[in-house]
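Aim 2 progress update. The chain analyzed this quarter is reproduced below.
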Amino acid sequence: MRIELSNRHIAYTDNDRVVCFENDNEVVDFVCVVDNDTENWKYKLDIKSKISANDTFYNTINLNPITIDKEVGVTLKAGMLPRGKCVCQIRQIHANGQVKVSDCFEMWVKKSVLSYCCAYQENDFIPSEFYQIEQNLDEVNTHPPIVDESGFWRIYDSSIGEYVLTDISVVGQTFFNGGRAIELSDISDNTKEISVKTDNKSISINNNNELYVDIVDGGYI
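Predicted structure tokens:
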């Protein structure tokens, strides 16, 4: 499904409000063309659906930037949307705290032959955005920050799947290792020197980001 967002107005690109079947999983993309940049603005898809007289389905899904400029989207999974009519809004959040909500629009999920296979909302329901955040955190944990040859940190950006250079300098940074303060105190010949203040031990990181332990005054780490 593809829509276009202009200020608050929503337009259906293909004039089709049916997004998928209830058992579809990771085969249908929801795409939204936006009129603001995707660097300073974040986008969320808020969903509400009346399941029964006493039960209402709610969900919030993060919309991630797509390689094409000014497009955000998500690959839908079973359980993100209930069967039937969904009333939706695009929530736009700026880095400075501004929030702008779109007009409401509809999405429809068709009934599958084997309806009992569908993942329905449960009592302890958790919004999809939290599962997405958890997945991003897992990716970041497996890609720790690295030192760039320029003397600045590079961190992993899970939205694009690669490391990006930050403006955080390695010099003067203080960390803690086993309760001991470690300070990145000097850079010379592309070598970053770390000094452990309590016992004069040091660790050197060379240009290939390899760690070397320097023993000072007969001590050890």
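The two ends are 57 Å apart (CA to CA). The chain is about 5% helix and 50% strand. These observations will guide the mutagenesis experiments scheduled for the next reporting period.
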